[in-house]
Every structure is written in structure tokens, then in C-alpha cells.
Amino acid sequence: MEPIITELLVLQLIYTFLLNELKEERGAIKENDVEIEDDESLIIPHIKISLVKITNEVQNNVLINEILQYTNDENETSKLNINDILRIIENSFVPSIFKVSLMNGQLNFQNLKLMEVKKLIMGKYLQFRTKQLDEIQKLDDDIIGKLNISSSSPNVTTAMTSSAAKSSSGNNIIDPKREKLLKLYRDTVLNRLQSKNKLLDELYLNLEKEGNYHKIVHKIIEIEMIKNETPRSVHYLQLILQRSISDGIMSSYTGSKTWEIARQVQVDFDDTVQFMRRALE
């Protein structure tokens, strides 16, 4: 797992604990929460949080464990320990900006500007996001490059010409029995996927309403194409369904209704694929 992910997790926890501690001390009510977080002039003379409390939360928080599960390398199974957390604190809270000391298992912050902690987290987040966007752009360029090479390949041209020649001579390219089986598989998968509440249809309707779909997705997979065209293979049908669900997730704000629908469609799709795999076996 990238170190910056663990840094963001630990720093966000520390920020949350500091904010909660400050609210308890001041008896802050809900209406004033935003003012406390965004007050750049706010200086906290002295505040402390338990290092054990931070460690327990890092090791036992359900969301953090899920993040670690999906970001750890195959040989990484251990959770962050107290020494890892101390190392992150030492490297992140530089003495020139923050006055932090450890005494009796408590992290003591003196003359702390809460806004500086927020800026620290946002800086690391933007650094991480920029790196991820650069990697995604590189992958996009590699894929487009390979597609361009494939489309200009003489072998592909020959194969297309050969297929066209067969088609014009009246020979069937797809065996009728195989075509019938593929259509049956397509209809069975879609019927099972949509059987409960037609969430796939609802996903596409919501994407159209939001209007982000066409701006974000380069080549949209139309739902009518999925329903009506004969897939090239079983795996191809799974591929275009997975891509359409992924496009829906990436085109929606996290936590929005459309995003939640797309996530549920993903769960239903995984169950459907497993069911069909067992049925075919």
C-alpha cells in the first residue's frame, strides 16, 4: 500500500479527534461546527488526544479495514501498529509549523491552528489525486495507442476483408445454434439482473437526468444495444455489462442516489455471474 494512503487515514483520524475534543471543551453546537473548522484565526493553546485511542481506531475501524484490504499488496496483511502511527506523526507534523509532544501516551498539541491540520490533509490528498490522475491518463494513452496499432495492423485488415468476403458470398459467419445460445444467455443474464427492481434501467435513467454521463464517458454503451444485439461471446457480454456499471459509478458523485444504484447493480451483477457460471458448469 502506498504510504500516502496510510498518512491520509491517520491524519484524518487525528483531525477528527481534535475537532471532537475541541467541540466538547467549548460545548459547540451543531450550527457552529462549520465556523470552528473554517476559522483560520483559531488557535488552540493546548489540546491532547490519546495515542492508544488513535491506534485502536486505525486497527478496528470497519471502513479503514476495507480500504486497507483493497489497497494492500498480496504479501501485506498486517495492520498499522503504534510505531507506524508515530512515524507518520513525526514525518507529517513538522516542528516549524506544529508543536507536538508525546507524554504518558498522550499527543500534546500546543498553540495549534486547526486550519493548518486541514491544509496538511488537503495537500496530501491533492498530491495523491494528481498522481492517480496521471497514472490513469498514462493507461488511457497506452490503451488508445494499442487500439490504434491494432486498427492499422495488416492482419486485422486482412481478417476484416476475409470476413466481408465470406459474408458477401452468403456464408454464415456465426453458427445459428451458437447465436441462439448466446441470445439465450444474454436474455437470462439480463432477466436475472433486472428481476428484482430493474435497477440497470434505473441507473441509465438517472445518468441521463444528471447529465454528467456524456461529459465523462468517452464511448457510451447504450442499454438498448446490450438488450438487443447478440454478444460475441459469454465473456464479451460480461465485459460490456461490467463496463456500463463502472461508467455509472465513475460518472456519479460518491454517495449520490445514482452512485448507490450503480453499486447495488454491481452487487447484483456479481451474484448473477456466479449463478450463471454454476449453471453452465
Q: What is the structure about, briefly put?
A:
The protein has about 280 residues and is mainly α. It has helices spanning about 5-25, 35-40, 50-60, 60-70, 80-90, 115-150, 155-170, 175-195, 200-210, 215, 225-230, 235-250, 255-280; strands at about 45-50, 100-105, 105-110. One of its GO terms (cellular component) is nucleosome disassembly/reassembly complex.
Structure commentary:
One of its GO terms (cellular component) is cytosol. Strand 2 and strand 3 form a beta hairpin. The protein is 70% helix and 7% strand. The protein contains 13 helices and three strands, in the order H-H-E-H-H-H-E-E-H-H-H-H-H-H-H-H. A three-stranded antiparallel β-sheet has the order 1-3-2. It has helices spanning 3-26, 33-38, 51-60, 62-71, 82-92, 114-151, 154-168, 176-194, 199-210, 213-216, 223-228, 234-250, 257-280, and strands at 44-50, 99-103, 106-112. The protein has 281 residues and is mainly alpha-helical. Helix 1 crosses helix 5 (82-92), helix 1 (3-26) runs antiparallel to helix 6 and helix 9 runs antiparallel to helix 13 (257-280). The protein is elongated, with a radius of gyration of 27 Å. It has two domains: 3-127, no CATH class; 175-281, Bromodomain-like (Histone Acetyltransferase, Chain A, Up-down Bundle).
